Amino acid sequence: MQSVTSTVPLGEKTSFKIGGPAAWYAAPGSPGEVEELVLWAKGRSLPILVLGNGSNLLVSDAGWPGLAVDMSAALKNSCWHDACVDCDPGIRLSTLVRQAVERELSGLECLAGIPGTVGGALAMNAGAFGQEISACVEYVDTVHPGTGMRARHQLPEMEFGYRHSSLQRDGVLIVGARLCMKPGDGKALKETYERTLRKRRDKQPLDLPNCGSVFKRPKGGFAGALIEQCGLKGLREGGAEVSARHANFIVNRGDACAEDVRRLIAGIQRRVHEETGVLLEPEVVFAGEFATPLYEPAGRR
Q: Which residues lie across from 237 on neighbouring strands?
């Protein structure tokens, strides 16, 4: 079986550069090894944390008490067949988008610059500027976290919605997928791709560690606009700060701990709800135990 290592720091494996160690860590090289690891963890009653590029993830300061399965270390290949691609879960989404644009295929160009892997993008149905990855999905292969059994899911089964899918809800481990695009105008695709990258560089705080967008877009508005409206740009908790460049980003000024970020998230939720009536829902995934609860209005507790 794939070797399993004990007490591996996870902070260096997340884009936030924050988090304690995993009790156990493994980097599988095949779907079969993923199955073996799931059964290994099940036999020891260990919870499983799936790692990709470590974006959209906040690991607690205490770390992860079970097995962290790193899909990005070896499972990161793609194989193109005309307008379709068979891809591993650990390939970077940005790499796949670039490959599609180079092949003059349309469907992913507006996702340029989104951090993370294809596996994470599929689980949360990543999207931007009117495109979502789910529009290109033919099927997704998974391993069940309880049984270690492999399954193939066709598009209608996965219940894709805004930043959501049944893949995420059920906690399955994505081990592969086929995406299919449509031929497009090469020049127009390249222009859209480059324009999207420029927008991200201009508006997002790419110079400091962060997890990407912290909150989901609320109905009828934008999280960043609401946070800025409440005067929260620059708000700090310890080493964590609401970005002055984009209010829906929290940056690590260099010495932030996970609890700093969690307190800042809860504080933003409270202030925005008190001043606008909107309860922001985190997009970031929390792994491990946190002392600070997320904010809930009194009537919802």
A: 240
Q: What are phi and psi of 235, to 5 degrees?
A: -60, 135
CB atoms within 10 A of CB 102: 12
Question: What is the CB-side half-sphere exposure of residue 96 using CA atoms within 13 A?
Answer: 34
Q: Kindly report the number of other CB atoms within 10 A of residue 154's CB atom.
A: 10
Which residues are annotated as catalytic? 163, 213, 283
Alpha-carbon gap, residue 288 to 49, rounded angstroms? 9
Rounded Cα distance, 210 and 48, in Å: 23
What is the rounded distance in angstroms from the CA atom of residue 72 to the CA atom of residue 47? 19
Query: Could you say which DSSP state residue 116 is in?
Result: S
pLDDT tens by residue, the chain, 301 residues: 668 999 999 999 999 999 999 999 999 999 999 999 999 999 999 999 999 989 999 999 999 999 999 999 899 999 999 999 999 999 999 999 999 999 999 999 999 999 899 999 999 999 999 999 999 999 999 999 999 999 999 999 999 999 999 999 999 999 999 999 999 999 999 999 999 999 998 888 989 999 999 999 999 899 999 999 999 999 999 999 999 999 999 999 999 999 999 999 999 999 999 999 999 999 999 999 999 999 999 866 5
Six-digit token string for 130: 């009117």
Q: Which residues make beta-bridge pairs with 152?
A: 141
Residue of 161, 164, 171, 71 lying closest to 116 (CA atoms): 71
Do the beta carbons of residue 212 and residue 55 sit within 8 Å? yes
